[in-house]
Each structure stands twice: as C-alpha cells, then as structure tokens.
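Human:
I keep going back and forth on a fold encoding question. Comparing notes only helps if you start from a blank page. Show me how you would write down a chain together with its backbone fold. Write it directly below this note and I will take it from there.

Assistant:
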Amino acid sequence: MHTRFTTGLALLVSLLTSAVMAQTVLPLWPTGAIPLAKSGTTLTEKSITEGGILRISDVTTPTLTVYLPTATSSVAPKTAVMICPGGGYSILASGHEGTEIAKWFTDRGITAFVLKYRLPDDRTQTLPREVPLTDAMQGLRLIRQQAGKYGIDPNRIGVMGFSAGGHLASTLSTHYDKGPKADELAKPDFAILLYPVITFGEKAHGGSRDKLLGADKADPALLNFYSNEKQVSAKTPRTFLVHAMDDKGVPVDNSILYYQACVNNNVPAEMHLYPTGGHGFALRTKPGESVSGWPAACENWLKSFLK
C-alpha cells in the first residue's frame, strides 16, 4: 500500500511538474516532409505510465520541448542542454530521463530541451537505423539556430543521454561530421552520458543494438560504425560519464571503453563509477547511496569549463 501510494504521488508530482515547466513544444521539422519517413502512415503515438515510468512509443512527429531557466545561473550562464531519454530504442522514458532532468537544469539557470526522437521502425521509416541520429542532429541544429531567441550562447550547447539515449548522444558526438549529412551546426559542445550504451561489440546491450540495426544486426561494418568507442576522435566533445558497476542492463564496460577512447584521443573526459545503483536511476537514487552524488559532481564539472 505504502509503495503504491509513494509511486502514485511521485507520478502526480512528475505530471504536474511537466505541465507547469513546459514552455514551448517545437516541431523538429517545421517545414516540409520529415526525413526518412514513409508516406501514408497511420501509426498513433502512445504514452503510458508503468511502475512510475512514463513510456512513449510509436513517435512519428519528433519534437523538442523547451524548459526555460527558473533561476539565474551561477553554474553555466547562457548554457543549454538537449536531453535524450533512454528506452532501448523501443520506448522513450521521458519522465525521469527527460522532464525531471530538465527541472534539475532549469533550477541551475540552464535551458533544457527534451528531445522526443523517432525510434527505429520499418513500418514508418525508409532507413530506420539512421532515423534517431537524423533527429538528434536536427535538434542540436535547431537549438543553435534559435540560440538568440532563448538567450543561449551558441558555443555552450551540450547533449545528455541515458542508456540507449546515451548511445544516441554519443553517436551525435562522434558522427556529426561523418558522411554526406555531416554538419558542424549539429556538433555538441559537451556531452553528459549516464549508464550509456556505447559499444555494439562483446559488451553490447543486445536489445538496443538489435532494435537499431534490425535485420542488419550482425553486419560487421555496421557493428563497428555504431560502436562509438571506435568513432571517438580529437574532435569529439568533452564528456562526463556516470555508471554503476552493478548495472545488469548495460555493462559498465561501455562507459570505460568510451572514457579510454577519449583519453587516447586527448578529449577531456571525467568518469564516475559507483559500486551500486543498477540501471536507469537518473535522479531517483537512494539516500546515502554513493551514486546519489553524481548530480553534484556533474554540476562541478560544468562549472570547471563553463564560467
């Protein structure tokens, strides 16, 4: 009874917070057709809450939800962060890995944008594996293009991702300059990765890998291309990593591989590994558990280079 009440209360607070905080919802593709989308789709977006977790699926119209600062920033003035919720590329956990994180940033004077990106789906998309990155690049590009409107320094725009959203954020960090769609406007100035999916190799989170690559999940070239520890270069943005060593969903090796790649390429990086915490904790950590200190560490990291 007490657990159900607590979960229900947390959900109510989350919903009320979302309603109060959300300033504007921006269509990701305001003009013209949405790239890589099949015409004539009738799929309806779904949003449900289970176990206190908001789950959004079947996204066909991607958006950015803007959360404006509620305080003057002493941490990182004129800074913005685009947040990529996780969910194994199957759903978007947009409550605790979206809205709640946005509030944490706005309370510190930082503008937050929660990205509702399309999930790989061959029913509605012509090349599903490219869709999440296409949306993430457009999100960063749109924030940079509208930086003046929101009082943001265009050189202080970061990306944050959780789990599979961490894979997307690290893909954006390492692939913005690759291929015919390369665009410097889509480059994050920094990245924050929590329990991220990084590799599609031996320590991969199989669900995220298989959902993104679909029928091509065993293609060696694609496995290498989307193993982001192999794509880090000197141009990769500085990165902050958080992972629990008892994570049974995404092995801690994922963060370690990315951190080591940053070190090897002289990319400034800071990594915090905690003995316990599991997977998917975001800000919902247990009192007294060491992993509950990650937000303070992240705040100090931001202060160290954004002054």
